[in-house]
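During the first year of the project, the team set up a workflow for recording each protein of interest as an amino acid sequence followed immediately by a discrete structure-token representation. This format lets reviewers and collaborators read both layers of information side by side without switching files. As required by the reporting guidelines, we include two representative entries from the current panel. The first entry is reproduced here exactly as it appears in our internal archive.
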Amino acid sequence: MSAVELQQVTGGEWREGRLPARLVTGIGTDSRSFRDGDAFLALRGERFDGHVYARDVEQRACALIGDAEGARMWDDLTLPQLIVPDTLHALGDIAHAWRERLSETTWVAISGSVGKTSLRSMLACLLKELGARVAGTRGNLNNLIGVPLTMLEVPEDAEIALIECGISVPGEMERLSTIVSPDVAVLTAIAPAHGEGLGDLHGVAKEKARLFSGLRNEGWIAVGEGVCERLSESLQQPVLAPGDADYVHFSLDGRMVTFALADERMELELALPARHWAANMALAMSIVRRWSAERQRSMPCLRDMVRVLSGWRPSAGRMRIMRHPGGATIVDDAYNANPLSMQCALDTLRACEGHRVAILGDMAELGDQSRAWHAGL
């Protein structure tokens, strides 16, 4: 991106008219992992100010991006400095500009109270098996900082980008949707979560629905079980949902899940009797088929997709199975918790055979309803 483009995108001004000598090919916000040649963007937080660390990258950065107050620390630095009103907003604007440049890439925004990461990894497994060039979120970089940084790492030849969007307070989802401007918006589930910021279930549903606010005109929505009922007023675009003819259906009996599509049936034995795994697998297969049709790619059959998902494994902390030397099976679901994810974990444990023990921690950020939700479980 050129210096002029950066200025236009962010609404900033180059200090004293000094411009970078070359194109800006990357943005870094952490001096500890900064790549030579990138521009350093100084973020602010409650307990940190990125402007302080500009000197750590002075010999490696092509330019600095900061706000007027923070840039006072840079008076003696000779690097080109782009002064913007708000660096976090500028980061999102730069990421959106990159997204607009990659117009041939399908941008998929994935949100939901539970299942975001699992669905993303299932989609990636299926798409890579099809030979698609896939990019997207790594780890848990799904907030107003992580999403733009993820987007800026999407290569120009990517066919599809899978972007997780996580929120905790009102206003975040609408901003994330604006930044990603998705071609496909996916909601896995709606459940009480982040009650301190989002309020009750109605507040969660209202905020999650804002994922659709930035959807492209020709875009479409895909939702998991129960989402349509909670968001019926917000679903203004074409929706791929359970019950549709081109949606992969499923039924679960113990650890055996049966997937159905038209007249085809396929069975898969899960490592755990986890209904939410089966539901996400059905959703992932449905999305991949719809995307393949739009891209005029060979349509994957149910048999091939189930075969691929038979090799899928959850990431650490998300119903990950471990074997204890003493013979016990340990299911690690400690990454995070809200009432729905906790209920899913308990339902899965209940369906397992043998002696079972649940070691439970608190469910945080539930606000005024915290005691009631803990008591209910």
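The second entry, processed by the same pipeline in the following quarter, appears below.
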Amino acid sequence: MSKLLTKLWQIFEQVVFHYSYPRYNYPLYFVAKRYCKFYENNENGNLSTNGELFFITSILKQIDPEVLFDIGANKGEYSQLILDQFPDCIIHCFEPDSRVFSILKTKYKNINNIKLNHLAVSDHNGKAKFYLNKDPGLNSLFDMNNIGYHYDNMLSTVSLETIDNYCKTHYIKTIDFVKIDVEGAELSVLMGGPRMLSGNRIKMIQFEYGHAAISSKTFLKDIYDLLLGYNYTIYKIMPLGLLHQPYSPYNEHIAFANYLAVNSKVKINSEYLINRPDIYRQVPII
């Protein structure tokens, strides 16, 4: 069987992988690239189709969350999805952009279990430059123009606070779920929480990794190493479940995606775990 597959692949290569047919190369590349994004669930920011909504409505229910952090809350879309599912939970939202923070204040002015914080979460307390984009979802502590983007950014100064300091001053002993979407500063956020991480005080952490990580010179391996050191298991969030994804250098393709780190004390229901070959370990890269 393997010989037959090898022969079929050789024929396919001879027909398709051929520079003598340049007009066919780009359409094939375009379709293949789009399918790879679909298969790996990369570069999909739609909460309804990229697995984030499914995670909230199905997997997060397992731990019946009471205390949650939304770091990089933006206009509150993610927090609202959580609130819809868990109306009695307490959500601590962190958003440094004054423009969208005012939207959050208006949106949640009569909701006592939403705690709004006009600051950025990082690895130290203090102040920092903050680059404001016309699209608030692209705001960052790092200048994206340094890595080839052409944004018309405005510069502001924001307050910084660590997870550990915030939890200490607000008497928070445990966090059920943390969502981090901070355009390249994800590692800094995690580095600011050694006490909470080392004490098994955070059950689940969702983080985004993508193009913005170039600006902070962060590899996915840096985040893996930190979280694995605190006994977390890391999954990739897929449209209908979680894919356990051990680190591979081939994951460093900077196509943005969402990952979930699960504390060793938490067990995920097997029905939500996707069982499929690891393409970076099973398929030889030639």
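For the second entry, the following points were noted during internal review. Residues 22-40 form the longest helix (19 residues). The mean pLDDT is 91. Both points are flagged for discussion at the upcoming steering committee meeting.
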